[in-house]
Every structure is written in C-alpha cells, then in structure tokens.
Amino acid sequence: MTNVQVTAEAVEGSAGRRGELVRQAMASAMAALEPPLAEMARFATGQRDAGGEPAAGRGKGLRPTLALLGAEAAGGMAEAALPGAVAVELVHTFTLVHDDIMDGDERRRHRPSLWKAYGTGPAVLVGDALLALALESLGRVPAAVRGEAVALLAGALLEVVVGQAADMAFEDRPWTGAGAVTLDEYHAMAAGKTGALLGCSAALGAVLAGAPRDVADGLARAGRELGLAFQAVDDVLGIWGDPDATGKPVFSDLRRRKKTAPVLVALSGPDRDALVAVMTGAVDERGLRAAAGLIERAGGRTAAEEMARRCLGTATALLRELPLARPAVEDLLALAEGLVARRR
Amino acid sequence: MTNVQVTAEAVEGSAGRRGELVRQAMASAMAALEPPLAEMARFATGQRDAGGEPAAGRGKGLRPTLALLGAEAAGGMAEAALPGAVAVELVHTFTLVHDDIMDGDERRRHRPSLWKAYGTGPAVLVGDALLALALESLGRVPAAVRGEAVALLAGALLEVVVGQAADMAFEDRPWTGAGAVTLDEYHAMAAGKTGALLGCSAALGAVLAGAPRDVADGLARAGRELGLAFQAVDDVLGIWGDPDATGKPVFSDLRRRKKTAPVLVALSGPDRDALVAVMTGAVDERGLRAAAGLIERAGGRTAAEEMARRCLGTATALLRELPLARPAVEDLLALAEGLVARRR
Q1: FRET partner for B224 with CA separation of 20 to 30 A, picked from A6, A212, A273, B142?
Q2: Residue of A34, A133, A161 lying closest to B132 (CB–CB)
Q3: What residues of chain B lie within 8 A of the CB of A128, using their CB?
Q4: Which CATH architecture has domain A4-341?
Q5: CB atoms within 10 A of CB B296
Q6: A57-79 pLDDT, tens per residue?
Q7: Which chain B residue shows the shortest CA-CA distance from A156?
Q8: Mind listing the pLDDT tens digit for each residue in A99-158?
Q9: What b/e string do you get for A243-270 counting C-beta neighbours within 10 Å, with b at 16 or more?
Q10: Taxonomically, which superkingdom (chains A, B) (predicted)?
C-alpha cells in the first residue's frame, strides 16, 4: 500500500465537480422536510452540526460519486444520475443512523451519532425520513426508467437489511467451535451490508442514463466487488486505524468485540485461545493492544489487505471488459484505488 | 352510532376472501427473510406470536382490503392489486413497529409491542426490513405501472413520516396559550400520519388495475377522508374505548398525555384549567376518569364523532360520484361504515 495520501486526495478530487452537483441535489431533496426533522436530517447527512451550524466533516460521498460515474461510464451525462445519486446517499445515511442505534455507537464522523445527539426515538424517525426522501427522489425520474431504478434500489435495500441482521446475529455466536462464524459467512454478510448498495449505486447511475441491461449488470458486479474491498479496508481501519483520521476510538472494532475478517482469520491460527481470552475479558487499552498484536501476527491484517487488493483487481478487470466510456472508467479506477488506500 | 356489532362484522366479512388472498401474499413476501428476522417480522405482522406460535390476534387488514377494493372498483381483478396490498400492509406494520419505539408503547394488539418483546435494536431493523419488503413487492409489478405505483407509495411514506414528526413535536408544545396545538394543526398531522396511507392504498389498487389518473386520484381523496374518519374514531377509542376490545390500557391516550382532537376541543372550553391540571398532574385512574369526564362534558367526544361522520360523508359522496364498479363501491361503503362504527 503506497502513496496513501495522494490516492486519498484523488478520491476527493474525482468527487470535486460531481460532489458539488450532489450537494446541491441533496440540499434540495431535504427541503421537503421542516424543522426539527430537517435539522436532524442535515446533521445526519453531514450538512449541519447539531444546532444548525455548518458541519466541519462530512461523509466520503462514495455512493453518489459511483452513481454519477456509472452514468458517465454508460455514455450519459452525470446529471441524469443525480436523483439516483441522492437516493443512494440518503439510503446510506439511513443505514448509518439506524445502525448506530442498533450497535449503540456513540460517535460517527468525529461527532456524536444522531441518537446520541437527539435521542433514540427521533433518530429512528430521521432514518425513516431519509429513506422516504430516497424513494421520493426516485419517484421523480422519467417513467421509462423509474421501474427498473426502483427494483434496483429495493433489492439493494433488502440485502443491506438482511446483511445488518446477520452482522447483529454474529455478536451472539460463539468465538470458536460449533456455531462459530465462518469467513464465508462473514463475506456473505459484507456483500449484503456493504457490497449491495455500492453495486446498486453504479448500476443505478447507468440505468438512469439509459444504459442497456448488461452494462448495468456489469457495473453492479464491479461496484459489489468494490464494496467487499471497502469492507476489508474498513476492517483493517477498525483495528489499526488512526482515531484522528477515522473519527472512531482506537481499536474501535475490538472494543466492540466485532467478529471481523482479521479476527476470524486469527481465530483459526495457533494463538486462538489467547485471542479469545482477550476478546471475552475486560476491555482495557492494554488488552486491546495485545489482541491487535495477536491478530496481526496470525496474519489477520495481511489477509484483509489481500482481500481488498483481490476484490479491487476483480472490479478493475470487470470495468476494463465492459463497453464503457474511457474517461469515466479511468475516474472509477482512481476512485477504487483511493478506496483501498484510504486511511479513514 | 347504532348496531356497532353488525357493522364491525361487516368489515371482517368484506375482508373474507380478500383477506385470504392477502394473507397468502404476505406469507410469500415474508419468505425472503430468514430467522431471526423472519420470526420477528411474522410477530410484527400478526402472523405469529413470540416464539413462533400462530397468533391469536391480528390487525384489521384495512389497508390491503382498500387496495383490493380499489382495483375492483376500477373494474379490475383484486389479484392485480395484491403486490400493492402487501406493500401498504407492510408499510403500515413498519410504522407501528417504529412508532411503538418512539412513543415507548409497550402493548400492541393484546401483546407486547415488538421492541418490548425483542429489544429496541432488533425492532428498528425489523421495521426497516418490512419497508424493504414493501418496496421489493412493488418492484415486482408490471413495468408499465411500476413507476406510478412507486411514486404513490413514496409520497404517502413521506407524508406519514412528516405526520409522525408533527405528532411527536406536539408532545413538547404547551397545553394552552401561545404555541399550543390548534385543531387545524392536529387535522393536518392526522391527514399525513393516517390519511395518506389509506388514500394511497385505494389509489394504488386502482393504478395496478390500470385505472386512469382521475379515478386513482378520486380514490386517493376518498381514502384520505376515510383516514381522517378512522383517526377521529381512534381518538374516541383512545379515551373511552373498552380495553378488552382495543387491547390498550383504559384511558390509554390520556395516560400518554396525547393532545388528540377531543382534548384540544375541550381545551378551548370553560373547564380548560381543570383539564390542564389533571393532564399535567400525577397519572392515576381517578384523575384520568375525571379528565375523560371533563372532555366529554366540554363536547370533545361529540366533536370527534361528528368529525368521523362528516369525513365518512365526504368519502361516500366521492365514491358515488366516480365512474366505479358498483359491487366494489358497495363493499367500500360497508367497510367505511364499519370503520366509523368499530369498537377496536
């Protein structure tokens, strides 16, 4: 993994003009809400901080960028994909808001999570409102492509929810022995929870630009691979990430006793019992640091990094094979590289 | 209000064959989920009790019945509306599951509410899953009507969410003076929270049966009026309903200090200060009984009952004016009468 800073900036750069298009479209989608719902929705999407001040940090805008690039890659205008870009960003934010409630996570993007800032009930409602706005956004696309667009989003949404259910169920499963989570189960969960919406984003952009079915399907597959790569990098950052960059506590996933890929890999190694002892014991920074060390020595970190590279390779090959517009493909590839090299 | 039992049975009766169609379609929609999500979703929709036993009670099935009747009234087959019937019932159940979390309600349909039975996090997720399944269901209708169907559902969903936000905001507003909730604000909230989905149900059925725009619009308006009538009856039952019939505690809405129409009417009467004293004091059965008496004497109950009758009259007039199939209109009218006469 080389030249991390440069590739991370490339992601931001590729989102420049497109990012501005998306920000305007998001703001106008949100205009359908009145306070206090509007203020909370703007907080959740990173447009405003609690109290309504402009926010310092915002999300990466990965999914809407993928949607716009999907349209451009299919030979259309980025603008055609805007209602889809808004829809996938809103659906993504909806999942963050509700997942933070389910997981009890108190921080998100260097700020309190929405439920922590405004309460659980309001956060449930804001998530619902974001999802309603997402649908509303797709309800405005030309009738000729609306049906296909909705079918794409509905399918992805269901996969995301089923993936989140699997992720929650993993928490109650044993660390070892019969009933322990397998690496295959973990990847299936990540394909739903993370891959489905990234695949949907790219395909939705193409569909809104009038792309034929096989092009949209190809972009969906490539986006899904990117999602798996994204999740693998997330798993690495969740253990070894810099809290200043990620906005999450140090050893965040270990603290939450998450059974992520690096942990599962290490659980099949020789230091299994020592790792289980740390992961099921009292949470202190020394123990967490020891666990991170055990996992790294057992090859858990390398395995996740290889997974990210492998999925990136598959996505790249798919994008090169499809009959797509070259400049957009180059931007997609830069975006993909940046995702795998990112630090936050 | 006469012959309550007979009209209540008429509602059930009109749902007989249609109810069976809906139950089968709901069961097959839910087959996309695996345990434990599937079990919780079946609990929420009243198909199963906690633990998976067949449930004793279920909902009234009002919205899916309206969808099927909408199709029939537009001259189509009930079957054409089934994906829409499933979608509106799932959206309705989604709102119940999430509203019970937001409102802290522990009972629903003579059973624990979902969050009470399974926890808040899982209940948030089940609500999301139900909404995803609703979209999935609409994703399967013929492409020619899918776009319009989705636009209808998206619009209704947004109105429902905005209505629920208003309802929650009412809780923090003063009982009297500047900033007090007005009856107009209350009706606007009810039109969103309850009216929108009933209107959508009838219109969606018609759209799926290929009805022209003006017929669908007329059914939407009639359904919305029925929703307002339904809410007015709900408000009466929330204070004076029989707990054995409603499945809710006695004086349930007063216990929750809800600013419903009967209360708002009484707050503009001469016993205002006495009522405010009771509604803001300690909750005991004697105080609640006193409040119910004050509200009734101030005309709050009569006003809500008149509101229900008036909206029923408007809906009836709309249904008689539209170019609809007679037998389905008669069933719609019987359903509407039953709604206003219901005890649960």
Answers
A1: B142
A2: A161
A3: 98, 127, 131, 161, 164
A4: Orthogonal Bundle (1.10)
A5: 15
A6: 556 789 999 999 999 999 999 99
A7: B132
A8: 999 988 888 878 899 999 999 999 999 999 999 999 999 988 998 899 899 999 999 999
A9: eeebebbbbbbbbbebbbbbbbbbbeee
A10: Bacteria
